[in-house]
Write a structure and sequence with these properties.
It comes from Astyanax mexicanus. With 97 residues, this protein is of the alpha+beta class. The chain is 34% helix and 15% strand. The model is unreliable at 15-23 (pLDDT under 50).
Protein backbone atom coordinates (compact mmCIF):
# COMPACT_ATOMS: atom_id res chain seq x y z
CA UNK A 1 0.00 0.00 0.00
CA UNK A 2 2.81 2.37 0.92
CA UNK A 3 4.69 1.69 -2.34
CA UNK A 4 1.53 2.32 -4.35
CA UNK A 5 1.12 5.72 -2.71
CA UNK A 6 4.79 6.56 -3.42
CA UNK A 7 4.39 5.53 -7.06
CA UNK A 8 1.29 7.69 -7.47
CA UNK A 9 3.09 10.64 -5.91
CA UNK A 10 6.04 10.25 -8.32
CA UNK A 11 3.69 10.02 -11.30
CA UNK A 12 1.84 13.12 -10.18
CA UNK A 13 5.05 15.12 -9.83
CA UNK A 14 6.27 13.96 -13.25
CA UNK A 15 3.02 14.98 -14.95
CA UNK A 16 3.16 18.44 -13.36
CA UNK A 17 6.73 18.91 -14.61
CA UNK A 18 5.82 17.83 -18.15
CA UNK A 19 2.88 20.23 -18.28
CA UNK A 20 5.00 23.14 -17.08
CA UNK A 21 6.82 23.40 -20.42
CA UNK A 22 3.69 23.99 -22.54
CA UNK A 23 3.03 27.72 -23.10
CA UNK A 24 -0.39 29.05 -22.14
CA UNK A 25 -1.17 30.26 -25.67
CA UNK A 26 -1.04 26.92 -27.47
CA UNK A 27 -3.60 25.20 -29.65
CA UNK A 28 -4.40 21.54 -29.22
CA UNK A 29 -6.79 21.15 -32.15
CA UNK A 30 -8.00 23.15 -35.14
CA UNK A 31 -11.36 24.86 -35.46
CA UNK A 32 -13.64 23.19 -37.98
CA UNK A 33 -15.04 25.39 -40.71
CA UNK A 34 -13.95 28.67 -42.24
CA UNK A 35 -14.04 32.02 -40.46
CA UNK A 36 -15.11 35.00 -42.61
CA UNK A 37 -12.15 37.32 -43.18
CA UNK A 38 -14.37 40.36 -42.51
CA UNK A 39 -14.77 39.21 -38.88
CA UNK A 40 -11.02 38.81 -38.23
CA UNK A 41 -9.19 41.72 -36.59
CA UNK A 42 -5.78 40.12 -36.07
CA UNK A 43 -3.83 36.90 -36.19
CA UNK A 44 -0.62 35.34 -34.90
CA UNK A 45 1.24 32.06 -35.05
CA UNK A 46 1.60 29.83 -32.02
CA UNK A 47 5.06 29.38 -30.53
CA UNK A 48 7.40 26.70 -31.82
CA UNK A 49 7.29 24.75 -28.55
CA UNK A 50 3.51 24.27 -28.72
CA UNK A 51 2.32 20.73 -29.48
CA UNK A 52 0.29 21.83 -32.54
CA UNK A 53 1.53 24.31 -35.15
CA UNK A 54 -1.36 26.74 -35.67
CA UNK A 55 -2.47 30.25 -36.56
CA UNK A 56 -4.83 32.00 -34.16
CA UNK A 57 -7.46 34.31 -35.67
CA UNK A 58 -9.01 36.90 -33.33
CA UNK A 59 -12.47 38.16 -34.28
CA UNK A 60 -14.33 41.43 -33.80
CA UNK A 61 -16.05 39.93 -30.75
CA UNK A 62 -12.69 38.98 -29.22
CA UNK A 63 -13.04 35.24 -29.80
CA UNK A 64 -9.91 33.31 -30.75
CA UNK A 65 -9.87 30.39 -33.18
CA UNK A 66 -7.01 27.99 -33.84
CA UNK A 67 -6.74 27.17 -37.54
CA UNK A 68 -4.47 25.05 -39.71
CA UNK A 69 -1.68 27.23 -41.19
CA UNK A 70 -1.41 24.83 -44.16
CA UNK A 71 -5.03 25.33 -45.25
CA UNK A 72 -5.35 27.42 -48.40
CA UNK A 73 -8.16 29.60 -46.99
CA UNK A 74 -6.02 30.40 -43.92
CA UNK A 75 -3.10 31.47 -46.15
CA UNK A 76 -5.46 33.67 -48.21
CA UNK A 77 -6.92 35.28 -45.07
CA UNK A 78 -3.44 35.98 -43.68
CA UNK A 79 -2.33 37.53 -46.97
CA UNK A 80 -5.43 39.73 -47.13
CA UNK A 81 -5.07 40.84 -43.49
CA UNK A 82 -1.38 41.61 -43.95
CA UNK A 83 -2.21 43.69 -47.03
CA UNK A 84 -4.97 45.58 -45.17
CA UNK A 85 -2.61 46.43 -42.31
CA UNK A 86 0.05 47.84 -44.65
CA UNK A 87 -2.42 50.14 -46.40
CA UNK A 88 -3.07 53.07 -44.07
CA UNK A 89 -5.34 55.89 -45.26
CA UNK A 90 -3.90 59.38 -45.21
CA UNK A 91 -5.37 61.67 -42.61
CA UNK A 92 -5.48 65.46 -42.74
CA UNK A 93 -2.39 65.67 -40.58
CA UNK A 94 -0.41 63.67 -43.18
CA UNK A 95 -1.17 66.00 -46.08
CA UNK A 96 1.42 68.57 -47.09
CA UNK A 97 -0.03 72.07 -47.54
Amino acid sequence: MRSLFALLLVLLLCSVQLGAHVPLECCFKYTKGKIPVARITSYWRTRSNCPVKAVVFKTILGKQFCVNPSASWVKQHMKKLKHQNTLKPLGWNNLAI
